[in-house]
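Thread title: Can someone regenerate the structure for this chain?

I was given the following input by a collaborator and told the matching structure tokens would be attached. They weren't. Posting the sequence so someone can regenerate them.
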Amino acid sequence: MKIRRCAVLYIEPREELGIDLAALFRGAGTLAATMRWIAMAPHLDAEVELSDAQLLAVGGLGQSVWTERAASEERFGQATIAQLLALGLVLSDAPEAAAMRERDEKLRLQHWSPLSLLAHTFSRWSDMRAGAGVQFSTYQELVALSGPPPPSTVGHGADGQAIPLPAPLGGQLDATMFARYTGRNFDPRAVLALDVVARLLQRTFGAQELREVGPGAHALKKLSPSAGGLHPIEAYVLVQRVDGVAPGLYHYHPVAHTLEPMTTMDGAQARVLALQFVADQQWFADAPMLVVMAARVLRNFWKYRNHPKAYKAISLDAGHLSQTFYLLAAEAGMPAFVTAAINERAIERALALDHLGDAVVAICGCGPAAATRTTIELRYGDPDPGSLPPPAAKSAGR
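Best answer:
Regenerated them for you:
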């Protein structure tokens, strides 16, 4: 039987402070430090505490070459190797170890940069709650609590040497751009018209062209940029209130321009799921439609293999797409939102995604504004974002 260490493994020396009662009674220093060795392996999706013997063993085993188990047991001890195999930090070629071995192999085939995978895996939320009824603090409250914020601008260069620029020219996009804002007060009864949804999805996530760029290789041309022109981000739509579409989860196909049903449900179930997805931010959960942006990482890493910037490029892709979505929503007379404060693990469960191959990045959504505001919004030209009613806008729903 042969063994090797898992592909990606990081060890954190975690110090915990406590009270040393014996030292306290002696009149000496009262703080005592305890060191714990914490192993983080993305294929396990959980932290594991290691003993000193286990730490020594994983440090002595390679991740690439399979070695005889007997030789490793002679070096590190039978019990230690057995424990590491049970934890999944060491892998075996034995048939009974196939499930864990295949999990590790899947990780290797994705071509992640190890540090990026570590950050992605262990920054995902599961059941985080922002808190029902939480209101955004005003600037005045934040200043009272934390003092003035850092300056809103910075300057560079010597005084008097800045070059004045002419006033910006007006353009066709101005009206839409100035109408764009992050909505936090959606009408909980509004229904989106299907033709509005179709335009939002096709112009944001849809392919405007499909080009064959090589044997078996196709490139999508979209209206937002993407690293390497690869467009790895998939759109999964949580429908709450869309005319003619049952509440539920759908995948948007960017070439066929279709909604592919994944899970249907009633409106109450969709609302519960929306709250769970956006970590209980009820000001976003009222939107009639939410779109999960999840990247098929191999689409990106196929070109940028083990590249330290590849995961950052995926985040940039999501930012480009969300801004396009914002502008299309503003064009339709609606506010929109994008948030990364989401419960990725809950989303993965609902969509049957594996974080090693499908990276949930953010959620965007939109809908008609409510008649009155209960949550603060920052709108262009709005002197008091906490109290003014929303401006009149053309209807995007029914």
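The longest strand covers residues 31-41.
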